[in-house]
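Anyone up for a design puzzle?
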């Protein structure tokens, strides 16, 4: 019997709906070169509201050196229009803006159940 990862993704989304907050993910997508006209299309900004939990780290989490004081652990719901990456910023409802780092999907069997990231100011 195969494990139902889609159900796990739905559970993660439901938990973040209940206990998380709505945040906005932002990224700039570079323009492209049009060889016919010899011009570049302009960069565009993409935004999407998502549910996420922005959590402080415990003191022991700083030991490996990749997490700095003031950083936050971010858990992002899997039902996103586009997957977050290191070019993505996250804006909380209170206006705090975070740069995402070390973004990784939790994706057993290729099904994104959750996105985990470090957020820094």
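Challenge accepted. My sequence:
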């Amino acid at each position: 019997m195969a494990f139902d990862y889609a159900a796990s993704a739905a559970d993660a989304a439901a938990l973040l709906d209940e206990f998380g907050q709505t945040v906005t993910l932002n990224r700039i997508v570079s323009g492209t070169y049009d060889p016919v006209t010899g011009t570049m299309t302009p960069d565009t900004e993409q935004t999407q509201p998502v549910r996420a939990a922005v959590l402080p780290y415990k003191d022991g989490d700083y030991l490996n050196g990749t997490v700095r004081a003031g950083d936050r652990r971010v858990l992002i719901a899997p039902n996103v229009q586009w997957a977050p990456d290191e070019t993505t910023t996250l804006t909380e409802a209170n206006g705090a803006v975070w740069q995402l780092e070390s973004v990784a999907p939790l994706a057993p069997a290729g099904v994104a159940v959750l996105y985990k990231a470090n957020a820094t100011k």
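A detail worth pointing out: The mean pLDDT is 91.
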